[in-house]
Amino acid sequence: MGAGADGNGLEETEAIGLYYDDFAPHYVPGWRSLEHYGPLVADFLLRATTPECRVLDVGCGPGQLTRNLAPDVSVTGIDLSPGMLAAASAARPGGRYVQHDFHDPLPADWDSFDVVVAVGCLEFCRDLPGTLRNLAGACAPGARLLVGVVEDREAGAGRSRRAFSDDGLPGIDMHAYDATAQLAAITAAGLSPWSYRFVPAWRHEEYSYVVQYGLWELRKDVAAG
């Protein structure tokens, strides 16, 4: 698990991992009352997964998005929190769960993935172009991806940030990108957009507002393989 996109990356990575370790055992019941994207992810996985396909669950948490996929589907989850990874492994013992920062390339000796889900994790993405390049590099040609990027339309153009949690993660920002910046990062990574929606993602209880996503269905270009 590397330092990520800048000199403060390692400290951020460790802080985020510890933050989510604290409530890994009871994350799923509490999160269900706040998040809105679960049904959208389930619909995508129903359409995208096929027998014996390889799925990458980015920022997998306790594996709640992919734990119930068919047994013949190969699931790999990456996350910063050892506690979350342990919960995911207990829920799907046949899966592979590895501590890894999505700002860093995935291990070169891993097989390529057919389906990628990166939803509920890119709040902490300091470098969207680099992260999408890392995910694209781990994909098989023709792979399908679902990516949720925080989009704050009140913050203006380009990239913006706001505190993620003054109580739980002081000094750590939530990163947002406008639709133009998202599309530029997608195409630079060799990915093709198939659909885009601006959707409510989850309710931020500490600040009493709903985080919004640019939710993209993408494909890895066959020619890029």
Task: List the SSEs and their pairings.
Blueprint: H1 9-22, H2 27-32, H3 38-48, E1 54-58, E2 74-79, H4 82-91, E3 96-99, E4 113-118, H5 128-137, E5 139-150, E6 159-165, E7 169-177, H6 179-188, E8 191-204, E9 209-220
Helix pairs in contact: 5-6
Overview of the molecule:
By secondary structure, the protein is an alpha/beta fold. It has 6 helices and 9 strands; from the N terminus they run H-H-H-E-E-H-E-E-H-E-E-E-H-E-E. The strands form 2 sheets. Strands 3-2-1-4-5-9-8 form a 7-stranded mixed beta sheet, with helices on both faces. A two-stranded antiparallel ribbon has the order 6-7.
| Secondary-structure-derived class | alpha/beta
Compute the average pLDDT: 93
**Fraction of residues in H or I helices:** 25-40%
> Can you summarize the main beta sheet?
7 strands, mixed
Separation of termini? Answer: 25 Å
Strand content: 25-35%
How would you name the oligomeric state of the polypeptide chains in this document?
Answer: single chain
Order of helices and strands: HHHEEHEEHEEEHEE
Strand order of the largest sheet: 3-2-1-4-5-9-8
Q: Let me know the number of strands.
A: 9
What is the tally of helical segments? 6
Task: Name the overall outline.
Answer: globular
Could you list the spans in which at least 5 consecutive residues all have pLDDT below 50? 1-7
Determine Rg (CA atoms, Å). 16 Å
Summarize the structure.
The protein has 225 residues and is α/β, with parallel strands linked by helices.
Q: Which tags fit this structure?
A:
225 residues; alpha/beta; two-stranded antiparallel sheet; 33% strand; disordered N terminus
